[in-house]
Design brief:
flat
């Protein structure tokens, strides 16, 4: 495995994502925190974004 320093010397950029992490797709790892975040969003809602030409 190449270290970050070795990869940077060769001009390689980017990040390689380990395929073993796919086992965590659609799995809630912290259900208590998710429930708390959902409750906070119900109370306060999402902030309104200013209208710009990019987010119409």
């Amino acid at each position: 495995m190449k270290t970050t320093v070795e990869a940077n010397k060769k001009g390689i950029q980017g990040v390689t994502i380990d395929p073993e992490l796919n086992q965590y797709d659609n799995v809630v790892l912290f259900p208590e925190k998710l429930a708390k975040a959902k409750e906070q969003l119900k109370k306060s809602g999402l902030p309104k974004l200013p209208e710009t030409k990019h987010n119409r």
